[in-house]
């Protein structure tokens, strides 16, 4: 890489990482704020959570369309649109006056949020040499999103109002978009492929098997994430008792933030391992760990629940850099953004119904026992399916001659 290419790669990595954090703000903020909205709107927990379901689904379903536009137009241009769309959507969410308006603005935000994952990941892997490490670092910033969301939502809600929890981050995202467009206009950020990574080429007979297996495993990973995200604030508020720092939203948010910070560290470690060890092995281990801890989470409370939750979310998040490296490795370069988009139909679109699953199970059973049992079964399906992935040589980044 030339000096200019290295500088471009660093800027691309930086904005890709920040953009990943932003993509995981609006939903976790809502899940913390939902604790207040139940009383304000006189709705049950399940009814409040249902307001974000359409936005969650569009967050994934819109991804292939965003990826297709990116492949045909401009990856960096789409990232610029993403910053403004999500920022404006969050500001509008903070200005709503009732459940129906809230549903509309969360849907708007989810639609623009769907741009990041297919476009940001494809753009990133076109600019860097060590994909696993870059995707792992990028994943850390994605995991930081719920942590930042939980803390800021708790602080802003307790100090100002739940509306500020959306409006303040929204303005920050819009300002980031302004800086991004300035750098893009100056040519510091661009779309030109600078990576010299040589992809592993599977045999033709393996392609269908890889696609089918990943469709199942990525759906499992997404369902677990989308179900646990709205559940954690409620679980902690009910089961952690004296561990909560205070009786307000901030204490719950701090505990949720802690979980996702630890999970981010797990992503960073596994991301680096993706450049050194077989992806299939790493993937299977991530699912195996989740099965017993889900069953323990169904029954525990207090400090034991917090520890188990750290393991549970970390294992779920550790699978993500492995998945993304697999997609980057096998997807054709000219269709990479679309391929990531198709992945996120499963990871965020269909699995976005996990929020509905969580809310309905809670309203039906009055607790979270059966939710964790269902998630353990889903992790088992992911583990069994992962065995069907083809074995492959140890991944290595190679420089083209």
Written account of the structure:
Mean pLDDT is 84; it is low at 395-401. Helix 8 runs antiparallel to helix 15 (336-349). The chain has helices at residues 3-23, 26-40, 45-49, 53-61, 63-72, 75-94, 99-113, 116-125, 131-159, 164-185, 204-239, 249-273, 279-297, 302-330, 336-349, 354-365, 369-386. It has a single domain, classed as MFS general substrate transporter like domains (Growth Hormone, Chain: A). It is mainly alpha-helical and 401 residues long.
| Strands, count | 0
For CATH, the homologous superfamily is named as MFS general substrate transporter like domains
* Anisotropy-based shape: globular
The termini sit apart by: 13 Å
Beta-sheet strand percentage?
under 5%
Structural category is mainly alpha
How would a textbook summarize the main sheet? none
Secondary-structure element series: HHHHHHHHHHHHHHHHH
Task: Give a concise summary.
By secondary structure, the protein is mainly α. It contains 17 helices and no strands.
How would the blueprint of this fold be written?
Layout: H1 3-23, H2 26-40, H3 45-49, H4 53-61, H5 63-72, H6 75-94, H7 99-113, H8 116-125, H9 131-159, H10 164-185, H11 204-239, H12 249-273, H13 279-297, H14 302-330, H15 336-349, H16 354-365, H17 369-386
Helix pairs in contact: 1-8, 1-9, 2-9, 2-11, 4-7, 4-15, 5-6, 5-8, 5-15, 6-7, 6-8, 6-10, 8-15, 9-12, 9-14, 11-12, 11-14, 11-15, 11-16, 11-17, 12-14, 13-14, 13-17
């Amino acid at each position: 890489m030339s000096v200019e290419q290295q500088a471009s790669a660093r800027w691309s990595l930086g904005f890709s990482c920040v953009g990943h954090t932003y993509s995981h703000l609006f939903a976790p903020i809502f899940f913390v704020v939902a604790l207040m909205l139940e009383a304000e709107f006189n709705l049950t927990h399940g009814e409040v959570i249902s307001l974000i379901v359409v936005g969650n689904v569009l967050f994934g379903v819109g991804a292939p369309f965003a990826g297709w536009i990116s492949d045909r137009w401009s990856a960096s241009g789409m990232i610029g649109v993403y910053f403004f769309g999500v920022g404006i959507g969050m500001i509008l969410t903070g200005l709503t006056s009732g459940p129906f308006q809230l549903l509309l603005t969360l849907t708007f935000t989810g639609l623009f949020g769907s741009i990041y994952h297919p476009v940001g990941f494809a753009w990133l892997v076109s600019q860097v040499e060590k994909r696993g490490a870059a995707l792992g670092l990028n994943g850390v910033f994605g995991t930081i999103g719920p942590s930042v969301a939980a803390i800021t939502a708790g602080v802003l809600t307790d100090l100002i109002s739940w509306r500020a929890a959306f409006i303040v981050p929204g303005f920050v995202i819009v300002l980031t978009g302004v800086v991004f467009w300035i750098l893009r206009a100056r040519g510091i950020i661009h779309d030109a492929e600078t990576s010299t990574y040589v992809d592993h080429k599977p045999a033709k007979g393996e392609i269908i098997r890889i696609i089918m297996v990943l469709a199942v495993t990525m759906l499992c990973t997404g369902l677990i994430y989308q179900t646990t995200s709205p559940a954690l604030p409620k679980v902690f508020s009910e089961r952690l008792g004296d561990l909560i720092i205070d009786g307000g939203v901030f204490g719950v948010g701090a505990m949720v933030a802690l979980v996702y910070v630890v999970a981010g560290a797990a992503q960073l470690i596994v991301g680096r391992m993706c450049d050194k060890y077989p992806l299939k092995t790493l993937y299977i281990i991530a699912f195996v760990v989740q099965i017993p801890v889900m069953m323990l989470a169904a029954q525990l409370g207090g400090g034991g629940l917090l520890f188990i939750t750290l393991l549970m979310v970390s294992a779920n998040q550790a699978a993500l850099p492995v998945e993304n490296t697999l997609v980057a490795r096998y997807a054709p370069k000219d269709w990479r953004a679309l391929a990531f988009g198709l992945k996120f139909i499963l990871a965020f679109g269909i699995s976005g119904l996990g929020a509905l699953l969580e809310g309905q199970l809670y309203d039906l059973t009055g607790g979270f026992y059966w939710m964790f049992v269902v998630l353990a079964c889903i992790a088992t399906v992911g583990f069994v399916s992962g065995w069907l992935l083809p074995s492959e040589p140890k991944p290595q980044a190679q420089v083209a001659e």
